[in-house]
Design a protein that fits this description.
By secondary structure, the protein is mainly alpha-helical. The chain has one domain (3-399): MFS general substrate transporter like domains (Growth Hormone, Chain: A), CATH 1.20.1250.20. It has helices spanning 3-14, 16-22, 28-35, 39-55, 57-67, 69-89, 93-121, 124-138, 140-155, 159-180, 197-205, 208-238, 243-267, 273-296, 301-313, 315-327, 334-359, 365-383, 389-399. It is globular, with a radius of gyration of 20 Å. It starts with a helix and ends with a helix. Residues 1-389 form the Major facilitator superfamily (MFS) profile domain. It comes from Marinobacter halophilus. Keywords: Cell inner membrane, Cell membrane, Membrane, Transmembrane, Transmembrane helix, Transport.
Length: 402
């Protein structure tokens, strides 16, 4: 199977995550009115999904290592589809949160399977290129998601958004069954003597370089999730934009992510993924510093939007480079390492998002300051990362007994 075909199929699968996060963002005001709650309370449904998406990966990753990628991935798709249907039937915020948690479990089993499948097939710089190609393909989902949500609102109401998500999960299941798993090369057998779940995770937790990259992922994703959680408030409530204008601005973030992702792939021929990662994290931080400055000075809307688009856009290069480096040291525990990465990323970012919903209030400045603080932490971690993970991996292998 070519890298493009593999990336296309895996990109379709991992697109479930951004679709479940972003498709219902334009419906936040309608959901708030329907349940008789505040706009920020609706954000709790997003935080609940994201936090569960992280915690459940701690179970899904090791299960995929032990029992195979296919069963765990298909089980996740089934749970995701069922929960999506039930969310569409929810009549209170409480029940919506409950089924979003269940949906998060299904999404987690899907999310942890994709990077593990990539690590089964390739490693090193090739893995960074493949993650980049998957990211480029899946950018279609978050770019289109708010527009899909706005279309469903025009045709009916917010319930239809989740019925569409259920249908998409069923479609992906059929495509993977017919086109992906019959063509994958067998996963290498684990040769590690480690047998228990706890000790598998301890291997990852004790690996300082891997945990540094996981920390970077958590902080960069937290900055982005803060924007996603409050994007409807920023654009629709603070600046008073329509559903269609909100969808267009949200898509602009994804468009820049795609552009930077495309630029990143040929650069990997000349620079290590760690160097590219460090540069893009620093540029993201500078964009967020500019955003805070504009908000403090009461700058115009177009300048606020430009800074947000620039900051979020750098995720297009940060994510593939960071994921490749984080998983490089665990070729035979790809599911466990991917689970630790995903669990840390989504759980901690979900907690940050929930805290911001509870304490940020109806103000823009606390939101953008929180994003900048997360980015500053990522800068500090990236400055201490090794310049070449491949060389460090070789040195580590040379130090290992036998």
């Amino acid at each position: 199977m070519s890298h493009f075909q593999l990336a296309l199929l895996l990109g379709m699968t991992v697109a479930l995550g951004p679709l479940a996060l972003d498709a219902y963002l334009p419906a936040f005001p309608e959901i708030a009115r329907g349940f008789g709650i505040s706009h920020s309370d609706v954000g709790l449904t997003l935080s609940a999904y994201v936090a569960t998406l992280g915690l459940a990966q701690l179970v899904g990753g090791p299960l995929s290592d032990r029992y195979g990628r296919k069963g765990i991935l298909f089980g996740g798709l089934a749970v995701f589809a069922l929960a999506s249907v039930m969310i569409a039937q929810a009549e209170t915020l409480g029940w919506m949160i409950v089924w979003r948690v269940v949906q998060g479990i299904g999404g987690a089993f899907c999310a942890v399977s994709v990077p593990a499948i990539v690590r089964d097939q390739v490693g090193g710089q090739d893995a960074a290129r493949l993650y980049g190609l998957i990211g480029l393909i899946m950018f279609i989902a978050p770019a289109a998601a708010p527009s899909i949500g706005a279309l469903m609102l025009a045709l009916g109401d917010w319930h239809w958004i989740f019925l569409v998500l259920a249908g998409y999960a069923v479609f992906v299941t059929l495509v993977l069954q017919l086109a992906l798993f019959p063509r994958l090369k067998p996963r290498p057998r684990a040769v590690t003597p480690v047998k228990t779940l706890v000790t598998n995770y301890l291997l990852v937790l004790r690996h300082k370089t891997t945990m540094r990259f996981i920390g970077i992922q958590v902080l960069c994703f937290s900055a982005m999730l803060l924007f996603i959680t409050h994007s409807s408030f920023i654009y629709q409530e603070w600046f008073g934009l329509s559903n269609s204008a909100f969808s267009m601005l949200f898509a602009a973030n994804i468009a820049l992510m795609a552009v930077l992702n495309v630029i990143n792939r040929p650069l990997l021929k000349y620079f290590s993924s760690v160097v590219l990662l460090r540069v893009q994290i620093i540029l993201q931080f500078l964009a967020l510093v500019a955003l805070v400055s504009v908000v403090v000075m009461g700058g115009p809307f177009w300048l606020v939007a430009a800074c947000i688009i620039a900051a979020i856009g750098f995720q297009g290069g940060i994510v593939p480079n960071n994921m490749a480096n984080a998983l490089e040291f665990f070729p035979h525990l790809g599911g466990t390492a991917a689970a630790m990465l995903g669990a840390s990323q989504f759980t901690l970012a979900g907690a940050v998002s929930a805290l911001s919903s509870a304490y940020a209030g109806e103000a823009l400045l606390p939101i953008v300051i929180s994003m900048t603080v997360c980015s500053a932490g990522a800068v500090l971690l990236s400055l201490g990362a090794p310049k070449a993970v491949a060389r460090e991996k070789a040195a580590e292998a040379a130090r290992s007994p036998g």
